[in-house]
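Q: My labmate handed me this sequence with no annotations at all. I'd like to see what the chain might look like in three dimensions before we decide whether it's worth expressing. Could you predict it?
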Amino acid sequence: MKHLITTTTPLLNKTSSSKGVVLSSINSCQKACKSTDQVGEKFNLLTNVNHFYDKAASIVQQQNQYPEGLLEYIKEPEAVYEFVIPVRRTHSLNKFDKDVTLLRAYRAQHSRHCLPCKGGIRYTRLTRDDIVGLSMMMTMKCSLNNIPFGGAKGGIDIDVNDYNPIELEKITRRYATELFTRGVMSPEVDVPGPDIGTTSRELSWIQDTYRAFFPNNINSFASVTGKPVSQGGVRGRVEATGKGMYFAIRDFYSDKEGIADDRVLLGKKVVVQGIGRVGSHTAKFLQRQGAIVVGVSDSTGSIYNPNGLDVSQVLLHRQTKKTLMGYPDAQVSLRDPKELLKVDCDILILSALENQINAQNVHEVGAKVIVEGANMPISADAYEVLKKNGQEVIPDIYVNSGGIIASYFEWLKNLGHVQFGRMTRRAEQNYKREMVDAITELSGKKKLSDLEYLVLTSGSGEIDYVYSGLEGVMHETWETLKQVKEKHNVDLRTAAYISAIENVASSYNEVGVWP
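A: Here is what I predict for the chain of 515 residues:
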């Protein structure tokens, strides 16, 4: 049964009496979600996700494979937990403000057709609809990539710049406590990860909080993903989303141009909006394969050079100066990051926030191919315009899946209690040495240099397994997308939603809907 759970006080509050839990019907959710996305009105992420879902679901329903109402059931969230975190501001270690600040927090579990649910935790200005919409996208993303997780998302409506690290740790641990002690999150039920405004630091705090409440659970490391490697994280997780985007772009162009290797990216002009955790890694991977990164942006502005920018040097400048402005090799510097969307280029990577391309600016977009590194960076109405203009979009629920794929590997590592490659690396190395020695002897060639020998005979470590698994999943999903796109004669985004919906619906068909 799907629930919508809202509490006006914290889920856990031992010092004050509970004001109760309000259970709302699915119908009330539908009323709340019926906001429009017309020009001049505030962008609503949930409305836009529903638009793409409904379009794909109508095609799926025409096949008459699923019971009446099942696809509408899949669309609705299983549960939405909403509560308030009280914060007493700290001016020093031993001095507290007498006033209490209230922060509204959420955790949405969109689908439990597979457990655990999976989704990040955001610390930014957000709404309930944002969290529900993002949790729905997580269901679609996991299903599309055949990752056995349900979709979830959490967050706190907060400006992190207003709080110091001590306060943020207390807020994070309170958020985790509310959900862990109510059984909402655990390694078996719902596993959070990093998102906008959170990093491995916050996830380490959450994981440590879980261990404090459940010290006898030997799978406590699996309570979160996106942790530092020293705390049970997996190598390659930090750059996984960017690496996955590189694989997706490579496969897209390989099919488009009929060149089945990395040469297909040679000379492609790339613009990256949002040179942060995702955009920076994507840019580096593309540049290594011969792409020319001509423009990048972040919240401080944008820089452009038609001859190309050295991504590593740009990131070094950004790290030291805390801004992109003033980069010496930039021919053009603009304070408005969105100005970069107008640049003529082969590939535009949107890895900042949602609603970056909308009805107001869609006609100014100069890219031939747009890659959705962020979630919902293109509004539904703008997407229709791009399609009419012949500008292709590689959709978010496919292209930015690298993070959830690597998180799945991290979760498996934590449950298995062993580092990938630890039991096989030496055996693989010995086997390769025997092969290389035999080939060298039979061929009569001169002895290899120490470096050549080391490269040819090294065993696979954890990062090799993560990269290999990531590439494999992204490629398999791409092949599925092509088949669905051709079968239904639809665009890539609709094909992605069709494939995801069919996977979830098939799961419900097999186990039934209870009661």
